[in-house]
Design goal:
The complex is a heterodimer. In chain A, the strands form 2 sheets. In chain A, strands 2, 4, 5, 9, 10 and 11 form a 6-stranded mixed sheet that branches. Chain A has a 5-stranded antiparallel sheet with strand order 1-3-8-7-6, with no helix packed on it. Chain A is an all-beta fold. Helices cover about 0% and strands about 55% of the residues of chain A. The radius of gyration of chain A is 13 Å and the shape is globular. In chain B, about 0% of the residues lie in helices and about 50% in strands. By secondary structure, chain B is mostly beta strands. In chain B, the strands form 2 sheets. In chain B, strands 2, 4, 5, 6, 9, 10 and 11 form a 7-stranded mixed sheet that branches. A 4-stranded antiparallel sheet of chain B has the order 1-3-8-7, with no helix packed on it. The chains are: A mainly beta, B mainly beta.
């Protein structure tokens, strides 16, 4: 039972363009959603989060959108930079316990 | 502020052997988590501690996995005996309050 799904295992974009990473969930008990970024041989690092009572949260080049009716969230990175190349995980938080999706590998080409 | 420390970084063992991983969380973080990340998947929570008490261990395979957090600081995760399917990266994370989980670099376990 995958409560959090990231259906695109990989995404390739050109430097300077927008990257859009998608995530779907099934658990209605999630009250926060988070995005983590992971480089090889390192642990995930927190990127941005959104409360379930909001539909948008922005932090610099990163914006997360939440559509509760569709149980869908997305992370927008504008403009994309080569240093953004990493694996991105979305996670749902229910009672301070995170459930992660399978990740999307983003490759930003110069 | 020092990050979450884990050791060893890599471990190779044969099936049926035992192995232990160590985690030192960020100072002052009361909550500690152990995750298992199998190649190509997202991290899966194994156990969550609040200080030295277990909050959730529903996904910990208790017949072979055990974890403890003595004195509410460092933690160890043990596997005994290991199986081939235990090959994964074991991640430790800590937090002071909800949402802000900080992860260590992980221990990559290979079971042959």
């Amino acid at each position: 039972d995958q409560q959090v799904k990231q259906n695109s295992p990989s995404l390739s974009v050109q430097e300077g363009r927008i990257s859009i990473l998608n995530c779907d969930y099934t658990n209605s008990m999630f009250d926060y959603f988070l995005w983590y970024k992971k480089y090889p041989a390192e642990g995930p690092t927190f990127l941005i989060s959104i409360s379930s009572i909001k539909d948008k949260n922005e932090d610099g080049r990163f914006t997360v959108f939440l559509n509760k009716s569709a149980k869908h969230l997305s992370l927008h990175i504008v403009p994309s930079q080569p240093g953004d190349s990493a694996v991105y995980f979305c996670a749902g938080d229910a009672g301070n316990m995170l459930t992660f999706g399978g990740g999307t590998r983003l490759m930003v080409k110069p | 502020e020092a990050g979450v420390a884990q050791s060893p970084r890599y471990k190779i063992i044969e099936k049926r052997q035992s192995v232990a991983f160590w985690c030192n969380p960020i100072s002052g973080h009361a909550t500690l988590y152990w995750y298992q990340q199998i190649l190509g998947q997202g991290p899966k929570l194994l156990i969550q501690f609040q200080n030295n008490g277990v909050v959730d261990d529903s996904q910990l395979p208790k017949d072979r996995f055990s974890a403890e957090r003595l004195k509410g600081v460092d933690s160890t995760l043990k596997i005994q005996p290991a199986k081939l399917e235990d090959s994964a990266v074991y991640l430790c994370a800590s937090s002071r309050w909800r949402n802000e989980q900080f992860f260590g670099p992980g221990t990559r376990l290979t079971v042959l």
